[in-house]
Amino acid sequence: MRRPAKPGDPRSTLRSGPERVFLVGIEHRARRAEKGRPTPPDDAAGASSREPGAVPPTARQAKQALQARQNVGEHLVPFTAEESLHELRELAIGADAEIAGEFLQRRDRPDPATLIGSGKLEELAAAAKMASAELIIFDHELTPSQQRNLERAFDCRVIDRTQLILDIFARHARTREGQLQVELAQLEYLLPRLAGRGAEMSQLGGGIGTRGPGETQLETDRRRIYRRIRHVKKQLEEVRRIRSQQRQRRLSVPVATVAFVGYTNAGKSTLFNALTNAGVLASARMFATLDPTLRSITLPSRRQALLSDTVGFIRNLPHTLISAFRATLEEVQRAALILHVADASSPTASEQMQQVEAVLRELESDQTPRLLVVNKIDLLPADQRQALVDDERTVHVSAKTGMNLDRLLEALDRHLQGDPVRRIHIRVPQSEGKVLAMLEGKTRILSRQYVDGAVDLDVDAPESLARRLKKFQIEE
After folding, report:
1. 164, 288, 294, 415 - which has most CB atoms within 10 Å?
2. Among candidate residues 118, 116, 91, the one with its CA nearest the CA of residue 24
3. In a 3-state reduction of DSSP, which class is residue 375?
4. What total of structural domains would you count in the chain?
């Protein structure tokens, strides 16, 4: 994993091998009871995780999840502590960590000083030391004071889930835009955590006119970070301006944009590649895709559409990331249709879908028309797969095998309202080779007859193309 550098330190102290990490899951009973999920018994506390052979959701459960997401005011169904710890494990593996051990604690309320309390603190410190852990990751956001107290008690580095996600984003950012967005999120996360780093950070003045406390290193660091934040935001505004110009040019041509959204590792990039042959990195690791990709696709009606692959969502997505990635997520906000990709094989599919809907509400995109694509149905047992039934708002596919992708394209065609298709009857002279070639490539030809050096055709054509062919049209 990437070691966080202090402000001003060079980023050249990266590890060459995997870092041994100890994972800590927390469940607060009082908070869970308020959300309506049953609380496990006391003897369930301790190290635990979901077994990999868990039963995936049935078609009926997927349908119930779809109905649940239509109720915008419904409370989110929380992940169980075991499911959450399993997700943290996947995140840590995605950051090239070596899992040294896991620890799960259930308590009524968080301890304000250490989150887990003094008794568990000693127990966890001993377990982490026996496992030779170099880093402890909490599946819960830590306050700056909690993080400092835990590091003193464990005598090793301690980070929370948000910092782990930021680390993974920093690894996968390839474009200049992605790197700027991650840096902004990291700086905003770091600011409140500068305090309390010890007396060694003070710079006391010396000599005439400089006696007294002078300016502390903390204040210096804060000023430098604020300057850097302003600089990064200015660069991102330039990115947003360029994106806006590109979007305006696209709007001058009637091509609708379809944005892919979904929980991380739901198979968005695999589906995107299957539809567009874009060659986007598709990986089983979380957040393998960070930088957005736009590709054109031809629908069955011969209309053109733009598909946009975006970063995956996750529960409790750090607000700093949502703010920093506004420039990228504008593609979701401006899309004519949102393609919500869900993982049919995930035991937590319903919860994941609701988490995606929560992020869409935060982006103010919850009213945008959408199509639910239930992916990875090839991983379901045969009887469950045969019981799946598509409807007007749901398509079941396997991006890996190509199963039902033709149905998905037809559904996309039906849902996109821009540049509607209408049937026209035209007569084109055979000498108009370019027009005939355009008809072959951009319309659906229903009938064709050759009459006196011309071609009579019945075609389904997009409205924008039909207007260009007006001089060849024959009124019925």
Report:
1. 164
2. 116
3. strand
4. 4
Q: List pLDDT tens digits, range 101-116.
A: 998 888 888 889 999 8
Please spell the DSSP secondary structure of 175-236, one letter per residue: SHHHHHHHHHHHHHHHGGG-TT--GGG-----STT--SS---HHHHHHHHHHHHHHHHHHHH
CA-closest candidate to residue 107, choices 90, 99, 119: 119
Distance of alpha carbon 265 from its chain centroid, rounded? 9
Residues 237, 373 within the same domain: no
**Residue % of the chain over a pLDDT of 70:** 74
Structure tokens that stand for 188 in this block: 């905003």
The boundaries of the domain holding residue 156 are 19-37+78-171
| Cα distances (angstroms) measured from residue 205 to each of 180, 221, 305 | 35, 17, 64
Q: Name the one residue in this structure whose structure tokens are 């895709």.
A: 289
Report residue 134 as tokens. Answer: 């170099």
Amino acid at 104: L
Give the separation between CA 345 and CA 375, rounded to whole angstroms. 8
One domain for residues 143 and 223: no
Mean pLDDT over 306-320 rounds to 78
Residue 341 makes CB contacts below 8 A (sequence gap 6+) with 260, 261, 262, 266, 267, 268, 271, 373, 375
Residue 303: inside a domain: yes
Q: How far is CA 41 from the centre of its chain?
A: 34
Domain-located, residue 5: no
| Helices of type H across 349-445 | 349-362, 382-387, 405-415, 433-442
pLDDT in tens, 384-405: 988 889 999 999 999 999 999 9
Q: Are residues 88 and 166 in the same domain?
A: yes
324 and 458 both lie in a single domain: no
Per-residue pLDDT tens digits for 58-115: 444 444 444 443 333 344 556 788 888 888 998 898 888 899 999 888 888 888 999 9
Largest CA distance in the chain: 103
205 contacts 131 by C-beta, under 8 angstroms: no
Provide mean pLDDT across the span 148-168.
89
